[in-house]
C-alpha cells in the first residue's frame, strides 16, 4: 500500500462504496458491496453477483462487475484498509 493513501476502516469504506454504488448509472436495487479486502495496492469489493438458476452470469452480473471495478479504480488510489 502506498504511503500517499489514507487509512480507512472496513465499515467506513463500505459505507462510502455503497453510496457511490447508489449514485452509479448502472445501479439497480439490491446491488451492494458487503465486503472489501486489500490485495496489494488494490481494494477488492465483493457482494451479490445475481447469477441465474444454473449459476451462470446474467446482465446484472456484468453490471455488478463493472460497478465494483469502478469502485476499485476510484477508491484504491485514495485509501488503504486500516
Automatic annotation (TrEMBL):
<dbReference type="Pfam" id="PF10692">
    <property type="entry name" value="DUF2498"/>
</dbReference>
<protein>
    <recommendedName>
        <fullName>DUF2498 domain-containing protein</fullName>
    </recommendedName>
</protein>
<dbReference type="InterPro" id="IPR019633">
    <property type="entry name" value="DUF2498"/>
</dbReference>
<dbReference type="InterPro" id="IPR038191">
    <property type="entry name" value="YciN_sf"/>
</dbReference>
Amino acid at each position: 500500500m502506498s504511503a500517499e493513501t489514507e487509512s480507512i476502516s472496513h465499515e467506513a469504506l463500505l459505507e462510502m462504496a455503497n453510496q457511490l454504488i447508489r449514485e452509479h448509472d448502472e445501479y439497480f436495487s439490491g446491488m451492494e458491496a458487503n465486503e472489501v479486502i486489500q490485495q496489494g495496492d488494490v481494494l477488492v469489493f465483493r457482494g451479490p453477483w445475481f447469477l441465474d438458476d444454473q449459476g451462470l452470469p446474467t446482465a446484472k452480473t456484468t453490471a455488478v462487475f463493472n460497478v465494483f471495478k469502478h469502485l476499485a479504480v476510484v477508491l484504491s488510489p485514495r485509501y488503504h484498509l486500516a
